[in-house]
Amino acid sequence: MPIPTIAQKGPYPVEVEAGKSYYRCSCGRSKGQPFCDGSHAGTGLSPIKFEAAETKTIYLCGCKSSKSGVFCDGSHAKL
Ligand code: FES
Ligand code: FES
Q1: Residues spanned by the domain of 36
Q2: Which residue out of 8, 22, 26 has the highest number of ligand 2 atoms within 8 Å of its CB and is therefore the one to mutate?
């Protein structure tokens, strides 16, 4: 399994819109964190697509080690 790069040891707060789809960067290389910009090419990793259930601020994992999918679960504190 390819190992992602740590983009940031903490979450990215982002405002999302209900019903809209987003692609969260999983490789850590995107220059447009926390979203995918295509920089994962050749890494064996790919973005995680998710749809926002409601319009609100969410906290997306920046360290790419969360066990809760795209969301920060505090795992960055152990890095
Ligand atoms: Fe990855 Fe918090 S930023 S678990
Ligand atoms: Fe990281 Fe696409 S740039 S998953």
Answers
A1: 1-71
A2: 26
Quick check: is 51 in a domain? yes
> Ligand 1 mean position to 78 CA, how many Å?
9
pTM of the complete model = 0.94
Distance CA 64, CA 18 (A): 24
In a domain, 29, yes or no: yes
> How many structural domains is the chain composed of?
1
Which amino acid appears at position 60 of this protein?
L
Nearest alpha-carbon partner for 72 in 1, 24, 32, 20: 24
Residue 25 forms part of a structural domain: yes
pLDDT in tens, 1-60: 799 999 999 999 999 999 999 999 999 999 999 999 999 999 999 999 999 999 999 999
Classify residue 77: in a domain, yes or no: no
